[in-house]
Structure formats: C-alpha cells, structure tokens
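Lecture 7 notes: from sequence to structure.
We start with the chain below.
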Amino acid sequence: MRVYLLIMLFFSGISFAQNTITGSVTDSNKQSIPGANIVVSGSSTGVSTDFDGTFKLTTNAKLPFSIKVSAVGFEAQTINVTSANQKVNVILKGEETKLDEIVVSASRTPERVLESPVTIERMGIQDIKKTASPSFYDGLENMKEVQMNTSSMSFKSINTRGFATVANTRFMQLVDGMDNSSPLLNFVLGNMIGVSEIDVQSVELLPGASSALYGANAFNGILFMTSKSPFTNQGISTYFKYGVTSQEAAGTNEYYDFGIRFAHAFNKYFAAKANFTYMQATDWYATNYDDKTRPGVDRSNPGYDGINVYGDEASTNIKGVGQKLESMGLIPAGASNLLPNTIVSRTGYNEIDLTNNKAANKKIDFSFHGRPFGDERLEIIWQSKFGTGNAVYQGANRYYLNEFFMQQHKIEFKGKNFFVRGYTTSEDGGHSYDMVFTGINVNRKWKDDNTWFGQYAGAYVQGTLAGMTPDQAHAAGRATADTGRFLPGTSQFKTAFNQVIDDESVLTGSKLVDNSRIYHSDANYNFKDEIKFAEIQVGGSFRLYELNSHGRIYTDADGPINYNEYGAYTQVMKKFIDDRLKFTGSIRYDKSKNFDGNISPRLSLVYSGGERKNHNFRGSFQTGFRNPSTQDQYIGFNVGSAVLLGSAPDNLTRFSETFNLSPEGQSYTGSPTKVMNGENAYGNSYLASSVNAFSALAGSNPVAAAALLKKSTANYVKPEEVKAFELGYRSVFDGLSVDLNGYYNIYNNFIGNLNVIAPYYGTAQDNPNLAAGTGDPGVQSIRAIQNGEYRVYQLYTNSDVEIHSLGFGVGLSKKVVSDFELGVNYNYAQFDFDQEKDPSFESGFNTPKHRVKVSLGNEKLFKNFGFNVSGRWNSEYEWESSFADGTIKSATVIDAQVNYAIPQLKSIIKLGAANIGGKEYYQVIGAGLIGQQYFASWTINP
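Predicted structure tokens for the same chain:
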C-alpha cells in the first residue's frame, strides 16, 4: 500500500493554489497558429499551443498578471489577465520576416538573427512541419550552405564549406549541449543518437569556423539541436510514417518510421519526458562495379579491384608466383617466363551479398527536470539517450554497422546566466564488421591465397602451352583457381560468412570491436547582471577520451588509451552609437595532450542601418584550429590494401607486423623475418605515387624508372589552422527578406592522408643508383619493391602547401501572392590548392562549385490545408576519399508534400515524396545511388 501511495504521489505532484488560463492563438485570417509560445511575464512559466492553436496555462502567479504571446513570423502581443480561469483569444499579426527570430549559438547569448555576428541558419517547429523531406534531418539539406554526404539511408553526414567525407571530423553536432560524435570515430553518425522529430524545438547551424567559442572540433561548422522542455511542451505526441523506397538496384521496398513522446510537468518544480523512435528500411544498394583506380577497367581485367566488390583486394604479381613455384620445384624450370608481369586479384564478392542491406535506427531518451525555486533561476536536468541501428559507414573501407549501440548521460545545472554540465558518451560496436575483410576472409575459408594464386599460375602456364591466347589463359587460370568457391546464398557461404563476421582477427575475420568512451564537462557564465558596461562571458571545457577497440582498430591491445584536452574562453559584447554598432570579441585557449596550446581569437562588427535598424551589415575575422583526431594519432588498422597508422609518438612502435623474407631478402638482412612498424612507415618509405610510376616504367627502362622514386618526408601530424574572413548583409524591405554572405578561408598545416610504401629491406632514397649494385641499400629497396616485399601504409600528416577556399551565398524569401512563400538561395564554393607542390596529397574538398535551392509553399492554401515543394540542384564535382575517388555528376532533386490538419484530432496528415521523377544520384563515390521515397505520415500533438 505504501508503494502504491508513493507512485500516486509521484505522478500526481503537489497541489498549490493555481490559476488556469485557456485560450487560442490565430492569425489575421483566423487560421490557428500551432507552436505559439505563451509565457507569464517576468517568469519562465509557459506553454505552447497545440496543432489547433489552443492552449492551457496553469500558474501560481497572483492576479493581476500579464502573459506574452509570440510565434515565429508574427508580432508578439502582451495580454493582461485579471481573473481566474480567464479565457484568452489572441490574434497575431504577421511580421515581414523571419530574420527577427532569436538564436543563441552564434554568440552563446540570445540575439536576433539580424544581429548575429556570423552566418547562421535556423529551422524551427514550423519549418519542420513544412519540410517536404522524409525527415527533419533530411530537410537540413535545404538549408543554405548544407551539402549532405549520404553513406546510408540511416547515416548522413553534413558538409558545410567543404573538405568533408562521410567521416567529417571538421564538423560538430550538439544535441542539448552534448557532442554527438562517436568516441571511436570522432565524427557524427547522422541522427542515430540525435533527437526525435516531435521533440525538436529548434535547429541552428553555424557553417563556418567556431573554434573561438566551441573549441577545436568546431572547425568548419557546427549544428545545434535543442529539444523541447517538458515544462512548456506537455502531453503525449506521436507520429507514424509509412512509405516505399524505389531504386533500380534494390527495387521497391517498404519503410517505417514511428515516434512517440511523453512529457508532463507535475508542478512548477518537477517535469519529465521520454521519447522513443524506430525506423526501418531497405538501404540503397551499393552497386558501383567500376575499378577503384582505373577508369574503364571491368571484371575481365585480371587485376580488377571493384569499388563495391570485396575480396579482390587480395592480389599479387603472377610472375612472382611462378618464380616461387619454380624455386619449390612445383613447375618446370623456365615455366615462369610464360607468365606475364602483371597483377592478378582474387575473385571478390559483391557488397549486396555481404550485407542484409537493412537500414534501421532505434532511439530512446528520457530526462528529469527539477526547478528548486519553481522558475528558471535554477534548473537541474538529468538526461539519458540511447541509440542503436544498422547503417553503412564508409572510411578507408566500407563497414556495416550492425546493431551498433551508443549512449549518452548528462547532468546539467543551468540558470538565467549560466550552465554547468557533464556528460559521458560510450559505444559498443555490436555485430559490426568490415565488408572488405569479410570478402577477403570468406575467400580464405574455401581456399588460402597461396593455393589460389598457385593454381592460377599453373593453369595459365598449361593453357599457354596448349596454345591459348593470354586472355584465354587468364580465364582458364581463374576458372581453375575458383574451383570450390562458396557461392552467395549457399549454406557453405552462409556458414563461412557468419564465422568471419564473428571473428575479430583480420587474418581470419572481420568483426569490429569497440567499447570507447568520452567524458566531457563544460561551463559558462554571463556577467550581464553584474557588469553593465558590456556583456562579458567566460567558460571552459575538459574532455577525456578512453579508446578501447581491444587492438582491432587502435593500438590498444594491451589496454585502453587515455587522451585528454581542455580549453577556456572569454567573450565581450558591447553596443555603440545608439545600439546600432555591435562589437563582439572572443578569445579561447585550448590544450591537447600531445600538442602545444592554441589560441583562437574572433572579432566581429555588426552595424544596423536604416530608420528601423533593419539593414544589418556584418564583418568578422577569426582563427580556428583542429587538433588531430584520435584516429590521426592512435589508429593502427589493417584494412587489407594498407595499414592506417596514426603518428602519436607512443603509437609508432605499438603497431608491428612480422613478415617472412625471400632468400634474397634474407641475404641482405641476415634474418628470415622482418618486423615492420610505424618507424618504418614514417622514416623509411617511398611515396606510393612514385612507386606506381616506377612500376609502370621499370620493365622497359629500369634506370629511368628508378629516377622516379621519391622518399617520403612525411612529418608527424600536428594541428591544422584556418584564418576565416566573412562579410554579410541581412535585411527586409517591401516584404523581401535578403541574406547575403561571403567568406575567404586560409588553411595551413592541412591534415590529410598520404600513402607510402615501406620496403622490408634496403633504404628508401630519392633516385636510387642502380649502377651501384645490390650491395647498395637504395638498390636493395628497389629489389624489395620488385619482389613484392613491402608494406603499404596510409599515414596521417599535414601538407606544407597553403590551401585557400572561398564562397558566397544569396538567400531570398518573400510572400509572393497571398500566403504563398517563395524562397531561393544560391551558394558558390571553390578552393585553391597547388597540386604540383604536393602531388601525393588529397585535399578532399568534395563540394559542388554551384548549388541552387528553391522552395514554394503555402500553409494556408485553404482551411487546414497546406503544401510545400522544394528543389535543389548542384553542379558536377570531384570526390576524393581514402576509399575511392571519382566524379559526382550534377543532380536535380525535387521533394514535395501536402498536409491536412484535423484540429478535432489534434492531427496532421502529410503525403510526401523525395526525388520526384528524378534520376538516381550519388553523393558519395562507393555508396549506393539515391532513389525515390514516397511516404504518408500521421502526427498527433496534444
């Protein structure tokens, strides 16, 4: 009985003398305004209107008091309340622009969008309702300056201002102040542990450098997602979406998306909420069968290495195989002379045979909110978030994140002018695996590499002796070697596949293991109530990484690697000249474990001209920096074709491999084996590009070929830096909203990857002298390359070449006829990098030079009925990444939706489609073509 009473007390709260005000909020056309805010003046007590524009506000304020009613796009009104249980019906007048919206992220303090010192984009509740995309996160792509990199239907990465792959380590995403980045991977996994569509209060995007306030990772953009408070947004909300996806490779498939939100303020002291969302779909099939590095090469080529084919990475020079067979007496002496000096690869498996092609995401979060004083002077929040799902991530290889699990827990104390928070993020790789190694090791289950290549060489020799042409002999060699191959769909294949993906060893399996964590704390205080001559803020943060991949990805086989960083900042904001000129200056110091401290200043001026101060000109300069990620420093990951190796001083010797040497190699070293580690990679290696050039010429002119070899001089990775200049203008006149911006960035010590080849013996040097003979270490290194006795490494280093990027954007919006709203924006982006000065360096800009986005909508076409159409176009651009390079063609994408409100049911029905009638298109070379989506949704809000 006691437990029952406690439960009843918990859910019913404590009763106080209260006044209840009910009412409605409509526009001048008597259309309801959902999401309008009603706040008791002088307090934080408030609610929001539901979908039919009605509200119910309960407060302990003594009569008489006033309430402020506001909504985005409308002029706010203050209403006096003089009697208990008063009914209030408010009609709001429409404003000319959304540029009066309030944002927080640009300066860590509330300010009008018009007065923001830097470019900022915002999406609110009304924008989410209007979006024609299948989800609000997909709809972010319609924001100015946003380019999505879609690796999977459930994993989309945001790119702003370029230099981004799927693994965008230059971009941050904060949800209620928590960094959503993966502790292991150091980048955001889309919205897999983000926020539910029905719990979003606002989304703010800063597309440029923000290191001066938000630290090292806010290098090329930052996204803020804020969820709704259970104090002001109560009740049960839910949505259900059902639809189909259509793709030529995958066909037509169903998808589902469901979410529900519970929120209740038990009294003015305590509130709580919980969210659950679930999405399931068939992923976009990845079926790009072009060769990774040689345009026009197909499966008929003996050395074929397909983009979405795995297992064919196992390759060797078939002539070298013949020579070894000769030395073992397995083929007649001289038979190796019948073999061509060419690379042959094993027959691989298509990606669609190595994954179930399912995309899924489940999210659960809950939070408890306490206000000890009954208002916003102090709020204590405990928040927990859990996310799991299936997606494909593309890095150096393609990885299937299968039941990947991530969780975050936060405690926060915040008030009017401060916050202090601490949170932890942890993850579990679940049953994730590397699809490249899955293909390689499924092949090895039915026949090891030595046997396969030996049978290939033997059959080729026999075919040649029988009078076959080279093409016929290659076909005979492959057919013979493939005898016994496990075919996809067979029980043998399924058994081998399941064994491989459950095995952590790269020699026999492909499972990814990860139990990494982040511990983070940060704080901020605004002295605006204590200091009057200017608004001054101070703050700081501390982060501890605990890397724990059990030696599978990082060099942490002997235990977790701990790595920390911290920073502190201050900002001063002051208005002059009748509040027309606003100065903002900030400076931040950050220190990372392995690097010297960095200082990041930002200076900006905003001038508000015109009689109404509605012509706003802004200019800013800031420096930013990005510390090398944990991958850049501590990775030691064998991806088959290469080893990805970080350059932290204590990392170089932790990753090592032992290789058997040929008799020739043993004669040079005096040992049957060679141990290779990071010191070889960074200190004794050739540029891979120079080895490729050498190999192409060595057969016809070995002396000239040797002259092409270049020793790598890669330095250990260090922080990269940017100097960012930005100008902008925002205004509204004659109902036309205008937003212009331009930027120019200068990057130094740009972090990127460099492929090198380290010989097992000899000394790497520029232009080795072949005439010196095999006693010369340089000649020995050439022999190592010719004998295939070398290791390929992908190093993390900096380019000595300065990189410049620039761009500008134009955004226009206007109500053209009645309530029809037209929006148009254009973005231009380009970069300048002298490739000749650093020919082996890939910048990975991966951004179209031209982008155009258009939207047309009317939420009040007639009673309860609205629609929106959005379209976007991008020009052709080059894609560069460690997995594959290529050209992404221009694309035109049109999304559309119609919605109908049912006030009696507090519901909205929406019918929508993405990429209507458009061609399938790539956003990432290596990922699947993006097809069409058609959906119907039903959303119920209290």
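Points to note: The radius of gyration is 31 Å. The longest strand covers residues 398-414.
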